[in-house]
Amino acid sequence: MAIRRKTNKRKTKNVAPWKTILKRWTVGIIVGFFGITLFWVLTLKFIHPPITYLMIKRGFEWKATGKGFKIDKEWLSYDELSDNLKRAAIAGEDAHFLSHSGFDTKAIREALEKNREGKRLRGGSTISQQVAKNVFLWPGRSWLRKGLEAYFTFLIETFWSKKRILEIYLNVIEMGQGVYGAEAAAQYYFEKSARSLSKKQAALIIAILPNPRKWDARRPSVYVNSRANNIVRYMGHYSIP
User: Fold this and answer.
1) Which of 127, 140, 149, 202 could form a disulfide with 84 if both were Cys (CB 3.0 to 4.6 A apart)?
2) Average pLDDT of the segment spanning 177-202
3) % of the chain exceeding 70 in pLDDT
């Protein structure tokens, strides 16, 4: 007669180790980040960005001086914007805009060389990089922000057209104290619409972009006026999207 032996089976709790939990959280965060940012970029392909971090930041800075909260902007579609302004932007800010995929390595190398030589500081950012920075990020020089700038530049170059990139650039970029976008700038400096800017007027607006809170398109310094004249000289060499 067979005798059945009773065995005590130890019940083990099925608890995931901390490494597994951390891995799941990490994967979830990464997937969520890519999903949210991709959705954000695709949404702004069709919807105009209502405001940017820089606009809010500058508004509070302006208010802190006792001058009130100022954000002056008005959207114009790509077709409404003056062709002179589009050509001036490419000539003055990003000569290889139509041919690069977001990053102009030649311009970056030239900027680094000039900065090392102690000449007037300048950046190597393309129009696409400036859109990525202004629309999706915050001002700053940290490696994190530069990394995110590169990431968003890749996304908008992948999912937006060059027309859309230039349209958003000319509508959100800071162009004066509390002045954002071409229409607000044209009204502020020349009391006319950005639909009908002359070559020189368009060039003057683009010429002040390195320091729009210090320079004035109405009363350009010798340097700004010289830069604007150079932009006018080269505008005819560039096509627009």
Assistant:
1) 202
2) 96
3) 86
Type of residue numbered 194: A
Distance, in Å, from the CA atom of 76 to the CA atom of 221, rounded to the nearest integer, reads: 28
Report the alpha-carbon distance of residue 169 to residue 230 in Å, rounded: 21
Number of Cβ within a 10 Å radius of residue 236 = 9
Q: Are 62 and 70 in contact (CB under 8 A)?
A: yes
Task: Please indicate whether residue 157 or residue 70 has the higher confidence score (pLDDT).
Answer: 157
Q: Give me the amino acid identity at 74.
A: E
Among residues 232, 236, 221, the alpha carbon closest in space to that of 120 is found at 221
Domain ranges of the chain: 50-62+71-235
CATH of 50-62+71-235, one of 2.30.30.240, 1.10.3810.10, 2.60.120.260, 3.40.50.2300: 1.10.3810.10
Where helices occur in 162-221 by DSSP H, the ranges are 162-172, 182-190, 199-207
Amino acid at 231: I
